[in-house]
Amino acid sequence: xxxxxxxxxxxxxxxxxxxxxxxxxxxxxxxxxxxxxxxxxxxxxxxxxxxxxxxxxxxxxxxxxxxxxxxxxxxxxxxxxxxxxxxxxxxxxxxxxxxxxxxxxxxxxxxxxxxxxxxxxxxxxxxxxxxxxxxxxxxxxxxxxxxxxxxxxxxxxxxxxxxxxxxxxxxxxxxxxxxxxxxxxxxxxxxxxxxxxxxxxxxxxxxxxxxxxxxxxxxxxxxxxxxxxxxxxxxxxxxxxxxxxxxxxxxxxxxxxxxxxxxxxxxxxxxxxxxxxxxxxxxxxxxxxxxxxxxxxxxxxxxxxxxxxxxxx
Length: 313
What we know:
There is one protein chain. By secondary structure, this protein is α/β, with parallel strands linked by helices. The protein is built from eleven helices and 14 strands. Strand 5, helix 5 and strand 6 form a beta-alpha-beta unit.
């Protein structure tokens, strides 16, 4: 049967619609692929054995985030001291990150620049190392890792120690702030109302539920879900260790990787443990530095006490 002009026009229209839909589908896939590539998962941890093999690598900088007193007693061979307390503007008030000028002075003195390969360790509790890891990423350093299990594991394996302090060649580091990784009170407020962003409260569940608080008010930021920082860690023979990536993927299985994640705790410290984990898993994530100490004391901001959702992994 011969086709009419209307039939032919209809067929052309359908083909165009199909081609257009297919093109949009392919475009959508490509955009998704590109977004995932930007935040692709990568190993950001290193073992003591791996570090020992790379101790003499050219340009490698090892940072000890313990106190100056602990560092002076003994440290990993070649390590420089960057105490975690230096990552704060004023830790006695809240968790606001160190300002650019003092941070510039510290990094220049340590010989660091944005391309420096850096490995951080702490006493083995992992939280101080995570806070320093986040701070360096906020200030533009691109090649930072953490020593899994920290100094405690290094000591247990009887690996090389040192007691002197190296004298690095000063750098010409210029502060570069990566705002993708730093959340503020305003951006966190906006995130609480944005369906394309998620907020995770890294405090213990009692604090999230409003049973205890480091601020004048009790509760949590509206829309936040609770994944305590300690859930990223496990104990191995009395040594704290990061959980394997597969376990961490299950922990965050309900968090869509396509959404921006904002983290907070009491002072933006233990939430950096979640930050480190989510960075390893490939998420686009920011840490709210002043955290509950700021939000919970600002009576103009809304809070919740009953959990809309709580992770119990």
